[in-house]
Each structure stands twice: as C-alpha cells, then as structure tokens.
Amino acid sequence: MDHKKRDKHFIHKPVYEGGDKALRAFVGQQLQYPEAALAQKIEGTVHVEYDIDHKGDVVDARVIGGLGYGLDEEAMRVVRLLKFTVAKHRGVKVLFHNRLQVHFRLPKATPAVPEQQMSYQYVYTEPQPTEKPEVESGNGAYTFTINI
Predict the structure, then answer these.
(1) Is the whole model's pTM more than 0.70, yes or no?
(2) Would 60 be classed as within a structural domain?
(3) Does the residue 59 lie in any domain?
(4) CATH number (domain holding residue 74)
(5) What is the arithmetic mean of pLDDT over 55-64?
(6) Burial, 24: exposed, middle or buried (Cβ in 10 Å; 0-12, 13-18, 19+)?
(7) pLDDT over 70 at 142, yes or no
(8) Number of domains composing the chain
(9) Mean pLDDT score across all residues of the chain
C-alpha cells in the first residue's frame, strides 16, 4: 500500500516575493530618515510587529521597541507598504503575525573639500628680429591668465 505523505505545514506562511534579501532591499530603498532624528543624531533599531491578511496586505503595524524622533512612524509607514504572497488555505481566511527589525543608521558624511582657487599665467614673447622694423607696434608680448 502506497501512502501519500502529508504536508507537515497545514498552514503556509506568507512569503515576500524575492525572499528576505529583497525585503531588506525594499525597506532600505523606501526608508527616509526623519529630520528630527537627523538633527539629534539618533540611530538604532525599531522593532515592528505587523499583521498580514489573506490577500497578502499588511493590515496593522505596531511598534514593539521604538526610538522616537519620528523613527517609529517611519518604520511603520514602510512596513505598511509591504506586499506578500499567501497560499490558499482551503477557503479559510487566515491572519498572520510577523515581526521585522528596521535599522536606522546615520548617513556617512563626506568631508567637505574647500574650494581652491588656482591661477596660471602664461607669457609668450615673440622673438625680436635682428633688424629693427621701421614702425614699432608694442613690445610683442602676450599675457594669458587662466583662473580655475
């Protein structure tokens, strides 16, 4: 007698298209550092718990561990943008709970390069002929100044 092997997982968890790497990339792409947190130089991790409905949409998000300064609200905004793929569960509408850590790191400041003024001077002097011309029209020198 051949027995069909039953699936170990009766209810399948929702999956983000592309996996965890794609999820992290999407969160990093959508994240905007709040001005209040930038001014106070606040960085850290916000822990968000969220619910996924039977369609794969995030319907509710709650901050479990927050930092303040607008970082909590920004993390919840980005989590609400997520869209998951959910398997069919024999007609039963299942609400899934999940957690995500949203990392906020201050952007690396590039050192300001002071503007430098450079000046080059090029002087060209025409060679003087051995015979003197009858009419002299200046000393025959050209001066160029280039500012960069």
Answers:
(1) no
(2) yes
(3) yes
(4) 3.30.2420
(5) 92
(6) middle
(7) no
(8) 1
(9) 80
